[in-house]
């Protein structure tokens, strides 16, 4: 019953120590050295015409950046409206989350604690950042599952916002302070909870609740975003110690708990003997 423990408006700075770790979702699989954004400058580079945009335009296909923005916008509005419907008493807090497109995350985006590719959620400013370079790369990597993949990622990040307004960042930081040696396990449970919450959203989603095909595509994506896939440069024996998102099997299983049952309380990954 973790949702009953409301800790509203989690303060900006108190939990950033844990929040920062949670935002390393995609860095392990990321491209290096392609910094482009300027601190505090928005909108970012995402509206800029590139050679590939022009090529796309001539071929009649939507430019990738517009396709990405359209997919993100649809997932975003559906998830926010669905969550407001699911937890009516927190509609205001749910609606307080922000969405920002950046080419890649700059340290100034989240109090100097994180820079990288995104997508990522910063608990301090309640903002989901979509790093367009990385998101476009991921959408291409997911192939025909691209739209389902990006939609899932948005659901996961919004899941972190749901965790935030329900005091789960505070809970995690308290657990981490008490048991620093369990760091990877605790953060993994936190991340798997966000996967489960993404499932709860899809279960109730106006757009996708009845789309078995979209659901199966999301499950297909989850097969490729486990720690063993994200940390290919890490020895297999070390993945359980450093991986924080869970294996593909774990991510798939917790997403299924959410999407099949639609029950928030079933997403209690901290209570599971083995997450
Ligand atoms: Zn996450």
Q: What report would you give on this structure?
A:
There is one protein chain. The protein is mainly α. It has one domain (2-267). The chain is 52% helix and 5% strand. It is built from 12 helices and 3 strands; from the N terminus they run H-H-H-H-E-E-E-H-H-H-H-H-H-H-H. It has helices at 16-22, 51-59, 64-86, 91-95, 132-141, 146-165, 168-178, 183-204, 212-222, 227-230, 236-242, 248-261; strands at 98-102, 120-122, 127-131. It has a 3-stranded mixed beta sheet. The radius of gyration is 18 Å and the shape is globular. Zinc ion binds next to helix 6 and helix 8.
Task: Looking at this protein, list some descriptive labels.
disordered N terminus; three-stranded mixed β-sheet; binds zinc ion; single chain; 12 helices; globular; 5% strand; 275 residues; mainly alpha
